[in-house]
Design brief:
Layout lengths: L32 H6 L9 H18 L4 E4 H7 L10 E5 L4 H10 L3 E3 L6 E6 L2 E6 L1 E2 L2 E2 L2 H5 L2 E5 L2 E5 L2 H9 L9 H11 L5 H8 L3 H12 L4
Parallel strand pairs: 2-5
Antiparallel strand pairs: 1-2, 3-4, 4-5, 6-7, 8-9
Helix pairs in contact: 6-7, 6-8
Length: 226
């Protein structure tokens, strides 16, 4: 998902939970050989895209059930808006900074491992073996209620949840580009898929004259995406 570059600080911000990974558990001993022979064959593991979708559905349902203000972000949000099912690495959710403690508590109560990474703009969780980023700052700006209230409720592989509006989603990807994070290849297919749903003038205005977003806009123009 959106990276905020390398200019992060280790100082905690007010309202951000100081969480730690759950203590590792000792693996259970393997059953006797004859007991293993009687077990039914295991299903093949889900492919990575489907595993990421399952994690998004599970976490989204938890947050929705508890009444948290949130929105799905990142590549899974692009997929929910009609983009390709080519999901990138993890699941991303956007929340307000002041809600981080409550969201972390909800996930921990559900049995998910939740922890604070060195970056001070998100917390992380693990669901079905997939990384989940709970982000409260997009492109160096705190996530606000106005952005989350603009989210559209969409079906995400049969589970309905709020999803960042296309304009906010593309802004969050493009405005984050910098000399240290400039993955045009990941953002280009999303821009192609959602181009008719995006207010591109607003995205340009919000990005200002930053050079890397400007370079991406030049690429979109040369490829006739916009």
């Amino acid at each position: 998902m959106t990276q905020n570059g390398d200019d992060v600080t280790l100082v905690r911000r007010p309202g951000v939970p100081d969480l730690r990974p759950a203590a590792p558990q000792s693996p259970e001993p393997a059953p006797p050989q004859d007991a293993q022979a009687d077990e039914p064959p295991q299903e093949l593991p889900l492919d990575r895209n489907q595993a990421i979708l399952e994690a998004a559905k599970q976490v989204g349902a938890l947050l929705k059930r508890k009444g948290h203000l949130f929105a799905l972000a990142g590549s899974v949000a692009a997929y929910a808006h009609g983009g390709e099912k080519n999901l990138q690495h993890d699941v991303d959710f956007a929340i307000r900074p002041e809600d981080a403690d409550a969201v972390a508590a909800t996930l921990r109560e559900a049995g998910l491992t939740v922890y604070t990474p060195p970056e001070d703009w998100l917390i992380k969780a693990t669901c079905f073996g997939q990384p989940v980023d709970i982000i409260f700052e997009l492109a160096h700006r705190p996530v606000g209620a106005d952005m989350l209230e603009r989210a559209e409720e969409l079906s995400v592989d049969s589970v309905r949840m709020p999803v960042l509006a296309p304009t906010d989603l593309l802004w969050s990807l493009i405005a984050a580009f910098s000399e240290h994070h400039c993955d045009f290849g990941a953002a280009l297919p999303i821009a192609r898929a959602l181009r008719e749903k995006v207010d591109w003038e607003r995205v340009r205005r919000e990005c200002g004259d930053a050079p890397m977003p400007a370079a991406f806009f030049f690429l979109l123009e040369r490829l006739n995406v916009i």
